[in-house]
Amino acid sequence: MTEALPGLAAAALEAETLGVDGVSWRTKLELFVNGRQTSIEDAEPHHTLLWFLRERLGLTGTKLGCGEGGCGACTVTVSHYDHREQAVVHRSVNACLAPLCSLDGCAVTTVEGIGNSRKPHPVQQRIAEMHGSQCGFCTPGIVMSLYTTLCRTPQPKLADVEEAFDGNLCRCTGYRPILDAAKTFACDKHLCPPAPASCVDSEDPKQESDARVCGSTTAALQVASALDAVEVMAPQVPEVLRSLGSLASLKVKGSKVTWYQPRNLATLLALRTAEPKAKLVAGNTEVGIEVKFKHRDYPVMVSTAAVDELHALQFDASDGSLIIGGAVTLARLEHFLEGSLKTRQENKSRHLKAMLDMLRWFASKQIRNVAVLAGNIATASPISDMNPVLMALGASVTLASAGQPPREVLVREFFKSYRVVDMKPQEVICCIKVPGPAGDFDFVKSFKQARRRDDDISIVNACLRVCLKPSASGWVVEKAHTGFGGMAPTTVSAVKLEAMLNGASWDGTSLEKAQQVLAEELALEEKVPGGMAAFRQTLAVSFLYKFYVGVCSELNKMAACQASLPKAPAIETSETSAAASFLSEERPITHGSQSYVVPSGGLQSTTAAGGEDHAPREEALRAPVGQPLQHRSALAQCTGEAKYVDDMPKEPGTLHAALILSEKPHAKLLSLDTSAAEVLPGVVGIFTGRDIDEHANVIGPAYHDEQLFRKEEVTSTGQILGIVAAETLEAAEKAARLVKVQYEDLEPVLTIEDAIRAKSFKDKQLKIEDGNADAAFAKEDSVVVEGEIRMGGQEHFYLECNATLVVPGEGDELTVHCSTQAPMKTQKFAAHVCGIAYSKVVCKVKRMGGGFGGKETRTVPVSSAAAFAAHRLRRPVKISLDRDVDMWITGTRHPFLGRYKAAAGPDGKLRALDVKLYCNAGYSMDLTEPVMGRALFHSDGTYKIPNVRAEGFMCMTNTVSNTAFRGFGGPQGLLVAEAWISHLASALKMSPEQLRERNIYAPEGELTHFSMLMDRCPLQRMWQEISVSSEFARRTEEIQQFNSSNKWRKRGIAQLPTKFGISFTAKFMNQAGALVHIYTDGTVLVTHGGTEMGQGLHTKMCQVAARAFGIPVELVYIRETGTDTVPNSTPTAASASSDIYGMAILKACEELLGRMKPYLENNPGHWKNAVSAAYFDRCDLSAHGFYATPGIGYDWENPDNTARGTPFRYFTFGAACSEVEIDVLTGDMRILRADLVMDVGNSLNPAIDIGQIEGAFTQGFGWAMIEETIWGCDEFPWLPPGSCFTRGPGTYKIPSFNDTPVDMRVSLFKDSANPNAIHSSRAVGEPPFFLGASAFFAARKAIESAREDAGHSRSQFFQLDMPLTPERIRLACGDKISAAFTAKSQRQRPSAFV
Prior knowledge:
By secondary structure, the protein is of the alpha+beta class. The protein is built from 39 helices and 52 strands. β40 (910-922), α28 (928-937) and β41 (947-956) form a beta-alpha-beta unit. α16 (495-501) runs antiparallel to α17 and α33 (1097-1109) runs parallel beside α34. The longest helix has 29 residues, at 533-561. The two termini are 56 Å apart.
């Protein structure tokens, strides 16, 4: 070992006599930021790089998205000079986790450092131009991930680009446009799959007159190929930093933490002796999370990153073992393994490939760039990805301490109990030794299954290895080695399985016995921590089967080349698909196409022009309306110049606030002791329920059933008990934790089933009844089915968490800067809790980093608490919720339980529906009533049903108050409809597509179950169009052939229609105001009541105003939304904002045009001259516009269903066809192709609309297939009741870049002008969301094929709940492996929180 790590023993001896005080320490940090030298003498080791960039340097382009390295919003480029390689190394790093002191000797580059709006870097420019930025909060991190990739690999391949973003998340775009922009930098872009034949020719959209525009990944790359070569301009590492490698070790003593960064092993070992309780860190990826979220205190931290001896990475010359130094990063190991595999024969490198296969899916690039293997071993996580691999490979760790000889411990003996290892306090892991293969027949494979492929911890992982030898009768196992994670409190070897396999024949008989042994050895109790007992056990046995088939396949190949070898055990051709894995095979390069027609005409006018609202105009030309213009803020978002609330410069005297939150789901409040918090240095004020009167304390958006500060009783965890205001955020958060609360527990109601048993419903039931359902059910030939489906909640996961800055003015004035969709509600309740007039409060919204409904009402408690503190203290107060708090307290999409009874005739024509919908409202009503109402309105799906009875029950529970989310109950109603459609289709022995087609609403004349006329309904035409364009019939046949040839890989395809009603269902909310100013230079300032959250509303509104005035869109500007310019605004929600605010703006513009008519006539073609003339003639150049949506209103109380009214102005329609492939043995899945068509009428901006469609589809796919909210309840007994488990990207997974459909085709439906909305357009924000559920029903068909192979009848209907996670997919397949474990479960379905 001393040959592998020269001087190890000598360093241990030297450390014994080396006194820490005698070491020469540097005490000043030296780093460069964006090319400028920064020397820091007052560094605080507990500060992160992100804090330093934002708070000290004011570089706010780098965002705080999650604080745990899971979203990538904080990504920066870190460069350093590697003395070993004599080269500069560039790494993408999570600034939120990187300790400031760890950047000593590095050059940091932020998004501001590579370009600005005046001179953007090509990466920034291409992402902006190709519509890759919507809300923009994630964009700087994405820009920097791509930039770092180009720095590392100036000539990247398409595969490199696809993998560049595994540590970045985006909630808006659906990823496709970002990937397209990134691919323009690939050197092999010509290898990208071609565009579909229907999307080859494209016309100029400015031609209008039905100009056909086709964009595609291929077309974008062809354009990029014609551009000049891109100079990446990689950051330089100045000589002063290169020389730091020879300087002294670093010691930084801060107010809370002392940081040591030794440069040699002897000093490190001496420190371990002197400071045995010191926390060793390398990348800080684990410790950073412990400090931030678990509030661990580590007064002394020792970094191993600069210890030169620990960077060894080589093959031992004596025995071929791989030596991995204790400070070698995972990324460096990954690149080393990639290079080694290229030069070694397959039979000599299987162990290296097993390591590499697991490393590829280990966390993210940002984490792998700083984390070290030794740290991962030492933390002893039971779900560590690498520990099972090291265990199976017989790896060992070498431990060193001062004055002691090195100690070598096998990894399989290193883990003693949960998070406890065989390592003494003074020891350091110096290296990991991985032996080479035992021979040519040493087979090893690694396995992992998580909720998502990119950047996710394992549910179960494993590494399986057998050393075989040929014999006269076949193959015999000489030695078996195993390692499993996620099956015990530590990583474990299946020793009984190993013993059984040792000496056994490698054949099917041994396999069956091995599966039985493994199932017994790794048995889990149903209440095991982490849950999913049946799934985890199924995975372990499934991995073994996959391994067996994979080894047999390799043996077959070897036998074919070497006749002397015995044949491998026989494997049926259809069984060979078991060996395949989405994790180890190359993913196809993603690509897409976008097609639309730019029509002419369809423009409208308003009453301000002398006619009626929506009166058609004769002009044919629409531009700039209808043009695919770039989002107006896209470039500023790509350069980091776009500002969000948390980026705003601090006012003098600004205080930071933190919330005091309840920790019980249902309890009486006995006492609230703030005394310890009050005396904490820096605390300025603490406010609780005792500081506010009863009237002011009562809040709520519809029902006033909430309290700002809970006083006597808490009805959920996460309710606000008070707020702390302090000089620093650290002081505020610490003070909030010091508040002592005494409770008296009360019995909680947590789930819908709990509420049904307890009859805990809102005392108002919503019901729609049309026709006579009971009579239709009673018909003799009616085919009747009954069933139920559960739909979990969905976290909004906007990238920008809730943030508010409240600035007091004169007297009682307050200015509230808030990330909210509802400025009016923010203003109203800030004034209410402070007891002041609404007119004294102004709410301003520049932009939001995403909203999706989550910032419509649930921002109000946070902003109101901050306003209360600011008003009382007369100082500015700022609050920005951490991700874990935001996800805990702000609510989700409503979980639903749908119970149905549906009937059809033998011909497949629908006859009746009786549906009961139950939703989990949480502790207050919030917007639950209109959410349930919309679910009932959409419970018909897109189908004409003659007889309907639909009832909605709103369940009051002791969980977070659930709220608006894109679709607002509509998707839940639509999904229940498709559930009973699938059920009926099974009973009728027809495909769901056939049943859908027979019952889709006719183009004219049919009424919905709530008596709304379906006017100009394009659904049947859309259905036929997508059926042809998606090649549904041909692909269905191909899938049938694929499934018949593959038992363990299955594909499914589903075609799905949708409709979505547009308008707020509360009539009074369908109103909008706008204010338009014309300045004397001819520029126009537009203000309206809508807010920008990435959906492109401001961009569209600029287009509307520019078209009205006949001026270039560049002359129109929207600054912000404010209640002082447009009062009483409706929340930006319900997809109606373009409709209502567009009309309000148009009305104001037309009023101004009326005033300016004589000046325009006298100055034809000279807008600025006309404006100037009007001004000098004292013409008013400012106008207010107001619009109220006509012809709507619905009365739930009216007993006559036909006389209740019309809830919607119109519908937006769409259809999708998705093809999905699943791994039957693991439940993993991917979308191979998605075809989407949406009717958006005459689009205001097709590029923005397509972006909304792709983003909504991806978000809908996440809801349907990935995203699962988990709260402690009977279904999850391993959690405290009422506690929220899914509180960050580590536990809650949204779709990632890797989940993008391989082939994504989007088209806008043509010839469907809508006379009921601005310039004949249709709303687009929410309607496409449900199309993501097409993946759910495609996966269902794949599961049907797997079940058929397992012996289940295809006509045997089975229930699938949502989301259709890998757990639900795997257990639904019903093969003998999964059935063995589900049969033992008390619950015959996976646990679900609804």
